[in-house]
Design brief:
With 152 residues, the chain is α+β, with helices and mostly antiparallel strands. The chain is built from four helices and four strands. Helix content is 39%, strand content 21%. It has a four-stranded mixed sheet with strand order 3-2-1-4. The longest helix has 25 residues. The protein starts with 14 loop residues before the first helix and ends with a helix.
Length: 152
């Protein structure tokens, strides 16, 4: 095909589109929140559905994402990417880096950890309250245990 060889260290080019994607996704989610509030007559109580997706099935996954989706509009309000692995830490290629490993412990706890991070961040960032929450069964068990054991 007469293509030049790929660059030896393509990871350094990942930051270029990543910054733009982070900015666009944050702006899109902020607009989704404001649009929902506007449709609710300035009521900042939002009904959201939480769900997680993982790199592979089973209980040994290393990467996953939890998202909060507005039930009225179907738009993503927030998400949390979780990882039990950091490529840079593993290879010791860079001592001064932002570690991508966000969770310790067993893989099955990723979904509940992501839910808690989104829930705690929701009111602080957007001054919104997720008052009505639709959960998958695993998160429902977490919410019941939090109700019994105490507040977040």
């Amino acid at each position: 095909m007469n293509l030049p060889p790929p660059p030896a260290k393509f990871e350094r080019y990942n930051d270029i589109p990543l910054r733009s994607l982070i900015k666009l996704s944050s702006e899109s989610m902020r607009n989704a929140v404001e649009g929902t509030v506007k449709n609710n007559n300035s009521n900042r109580d939002i009904t959201a559905a939480f769900d997680g997706s993982w790199q592979k099935r089973g209980h040994t996954f290393l990467n996953g994402v939890v998202s909060a989706t507005c039930l009225e509009t179907g738009k993503v309000l927030d998400f949390e990417c979780l990882s039990k692995y950091c490529f840079k830490c593993k290879n010791r290629s860079n001592k001064d880096h932002k570690c991508e490993k966000k969770i310790e412990g067993f893989s099955g706890g990723m979904e509940s950890d992501g839910f808690l991070k989104i829930f705690q961040r929701s009111e602080r960032l957007n001054k919104k309250k997720l008052t009505h929450v639709v959960l998958v069964p695993e998160l429902l068990l977490l919410l019941i245990s939090l109700t019994v054991l105490g507040p977040l």
